[in-house]
Amino acid sequence: MTTPLVKDLVALIAQEGPISIERYMALSLSDPRYGYYMTRDPLGTRGDFITSPEISQVFGELLGLWCGECFRLMGAPESFMLVELGPGRGTLMADALRVLKIVPGFLDGAEIHLVETSPVLRKMQETTLAPLGRPITWHASIDTLPTKPAIVLANEFFDALPIRQYQKEAQGWHERLVGLDDDHTLILGLSAEPAAHLAALKADEGSVYEEARIAATIMRSLARHLRSYGGVMLTVDYGHSQSGMGDTWQALSQHQFIDPLLRAGEADQTSHVDFQKLSESAQAGGAVPSSIITQRDLLLRLGLEPRMQQLTRGNPDRSYDITKACLRLIDHTSPQAMGQLFKALAISHPNFGPIPAFDAPSS
Q1: Pairing of strands 136-139, 288-289
Q2: How do strand 164-169 and strand 250-253 relate by DSSP bridges?
Q3: What's the Cα-to-Cα distance from 305 to each of 111, 280, 309, 322, 327, rounded to whole Å?
Q4: What is the mean pLDDT of residues 242-262?
Q5: 135-155 burial by CB neighbour count: b if 16+ within 10 A, else e?
Q6: What is the per-residue pLDDT across 1-17, written as a single tens digit (0 to 9) for each?
Q7: pLDDT for res 1
Q8: 157: nearest Cα among 345, 319, 318, 357
Q9: What's the whole-number mean pLDDT along residues 345-350?
Q10: In sequence order, what DSSP letters do the residues of 212-242 get, joined into one string?
């Protein structure tokens, strides 16, 4: 299917030559006219995918309580930022702020900052959070966040950042590029010259290696902020705990996987997050990373089961739906189930101490 952005990409490649997957993903998601996130609400049953906060209010509530405990461990600062990266419709923040009312002093000192590039989603966030009556500051990137202590949440943020891919050939690692075939259709090919910086990386011929440079840069910057001003960050996303080989670049349309080279600008483009690399980037920025745990362990340690029981008792007519939604968040019956596929990583200032939920035994 040809989309307006596909036509632009074909013209661009015909003029300039093949482009990196990183650039292709960036244009597909963020092109000012036709980018996926610039033009639509991608969430929900009528969208292309659904996130944990949209599945159950319990997700945002538990992360809110995590923020409250971190606030206490920070010494209850009189002024700090509560930051969310890629806030979707604002559902997670709304649920978190609702429970944070019970934490003495939290809302008195918190400045809410949302990092969002999509004008469509910004409007939805504004609508969702308006009833709370709190001032909110939006940012196009983390670079404009104020210089003060922060508690940062990032749910399904890093998976949407563009990546590069390299393929092992007899002569070394060659970058995978998006080019054109004889019919001017988008295809994948390899750069002519091997990538010198990967010369020492060992793997079988045909292996694919992914490099998330943008994610690493953002994580180092956030780590430097926490190292300089204090605070803690929690990121939850789908991915793997240990670095390895494999092609995880994918596109989603109406909850179905499609070829990433089809329907550019009209399908979501993501890859699996390498949590080991994220942890190393945080360390390089001067923050202290936690262990990497599953979403299942995170939510159970934060109290999902008693909260689920409380909700079902208070809403007996909705008990089945509430239970089903909560169990979906912690399902670990397969590697692709949310409780197993999604991982959690926290990073903090060196003097922060043990991070809530990351020091309990695994379930």
Answers
A1: unpaired
A2: unpaired
A3: 30, 32, 6, 11, 9
A4: 90
A5: ebeebeebeebbeebbbbbbb
A6: 588 999 999 999 999 99
A7: 59
A8: 345
A9: 97
A10: -HHHHHHHHHHHHHHHHH-EEEEEEEEEESS
Rounded to 5 degrees, what are φ and ψ at 112?
-95, 125
Which tokens is 93 given?
Answer: 């923040």
79 or 30, which is more confident: 79
The answer to whether the beta carbons of residues 343 and 236 sit under 8 Å apart is: yes
CA 49 to chain centre: 13
Q: How far is CA 133 from CA 12, 94, 98, 106, 136, in A?
A: 45, 11, 12, 15, 9
Residue 279 CB coordination number (10 Å): 22
Looking at the whole model, is its pTM more than 0.90? yes
Residue 81 phi, psi dihedral angles, 5° rounding: -105, 140
**What residue has token string 């749910």?**
155
> So what's the pLDDT on residue 340?
97
pLDDT at 48 over 70: no
Which pLDDT score, from 0 to 100, does residue 50 have?
A: 80
Top pLDDT among 208 and 40 is at 208
| CA distances in angstroms from 101 to 53, 83, 97, 229, 335, listed in the order given | 19, 17, 7, 25, 36
Residue with tokens 């995590």: 66
Per DSSP, the residues of 103-148 read STTHHHHEEEEEE---HHHHHHHHHHHGGGT--EEEESSGGG--SS
Name the DSSP class of 164: E
Q: Quick one: pLDDT at residue 49?
A: 58
Residue 8 near residue 34 (C-beta atoms within 8 A): yes
pLDDT digit string (tens) for 107-151? 999 999 999 998 889 999 999 999 999 999 999 999 999 999 999
Q: What's the confidence (pLDDT) of residue 312?
A: 94
3-state secondary structure 3-51: CHHHHHHHHHHHHHCCEEHHHHHHHHHHCCCCCHHHHCCCECCCCCECC
**Sign of the alpha-carbon torsion through 51, 273, 113, 95:** positive
